Amino acid sequence: MTFQFTDGSFELGYDGQPWGRRTSTDQRYYHLAKPVRRPVRPFRSEAILAAQEIRASRPGRIIIPYSGGADSEGICEAFRRAKVEFTPLVVVYEHELNRHDVDYAFAWCRRHGYEPIVEHIDLDKFYASGMALELARMCQAWELAYMPVLSVMLEYRSQGFFIGPGEASIHRVLRENGRSEWLYSESERHYCYNKFMAAANINGVPSFYQWSTELVHSVLCDPLLEALASGLYAARIWGSSILKHSLYRKHLGLQPRIKFTGFEASGSMLSLHNHAWRQDPASMLCMNQSSDIEYWSQVDNARWRPA
């Protein structure tokens, strides 16, 4: 299968070779982005256009894993506004562990008339089965929290193609010259979605918010981000999570919410499994390097700005 993970704007991989797997602990993770190619529209318009382009890029049923968090709801809202049909996939953890988040998902589906696929997983049994470790080796994942949802994607892989968030983050770094800069970064731990889909022969777009350079720049050129970069907002009160919620609310009408994945209610269970996994020699090929892109210089020199 030929995978079209983006519209051609991005490359992710190791040592300059795109879309590969880590074969050595010495390899460097990299993330390459191409410049904007046309006038950049506001975020809401770019997100809707991305949904339409993804629909046009391949046939079949679109399935969107929907946790109830802001990132996945933003994808659902973009596809809804684009009038592109899709099916939400909601994974419910037994004993109501992630009820807080999935309540948002079910409420959104009821409000807009969507019938989601609903799968139930007992986390204790799932991790005890060894399935999480099998999937972690497959996608070279540093974090086992992703594995329950990936197991459901594996089960449904013949029924359509999947859209994942793959959201990157914006943070401030201190340079050797004493100056600080805001960077847009993509962590290797998110790249595991791409590696998983390739290894499991799952068709999809692992990183919706990186479908196109123009979609990324619509975020970075938004007045909210420009105010952050110019120092109008203090970094200590204007972190990536607050910023994302403000952006989604402004452009897609989302209600801000605190995210509870469900693992908070399971005590130290996930930490214990993660610790055990990271003692496995295979986990040494599942690092969490960060690949920083100095987007702000691109934004400052960009010929095109959102209307």
Task: Summarize this entry quickly.
By secondary structure, the protein is of the alpha/beta class. It has twelve helices and eleven strands. Helix 1 runs antiparallel to helix 8.
General description of the model:
This is Asparagine synthase. With 307 residues, this protein is of the alpha/beta class. It has a single domain, classed as Rossmann fold (3-Layer(aba) Sandwich), CATH 3.40.50. It is 39% helix and 17% strand. The chain is built from 12 helices and 11 strands. The strands form 3 sheets. Strands 6-5-4-7-10 form a 5-stranded parallel beta sheet, with helices on both faces. β1 and β2 form a beta hairpin. α1 packs antiparallel against α8, α2 packs parallel to α10 and α5 packs across α6. The longest helix has 15 residues. It is globular, with a radius of gyration of 19 Å.
Percent strand? 15-25%
CATH fold call: Rossmann fold
Number of domains: 1
Estimated helix fraction: 25-40%
Return the structural class: alpha/beta
| Distinct helical segment count | 12
Q: Which term fits the overall shape? A: globular
The total count of strands amounts to 11
The CATH class designation is: Alpha Beta
- Looking at the overall shape, the CATH architecture is 3-Layer(aba) Sandwich
Q: Give the neighbour order of strands across the main sheet.
A: 6-5-4-7-10
Residue ranges: pLDDT <50 for 5 or more in a row?
A: none
- Strand/helix succession: EEEHEHEHEHHHEEEHEHHHHEH
Distance between the termini: 38 Å
Q: Give the overall average pLDDT.
A: 86
Q: Calculate Rg over CA atoms.
A: 19 Å
Biggest β-sheet: count, sense, barrel? 5 strands, parallel
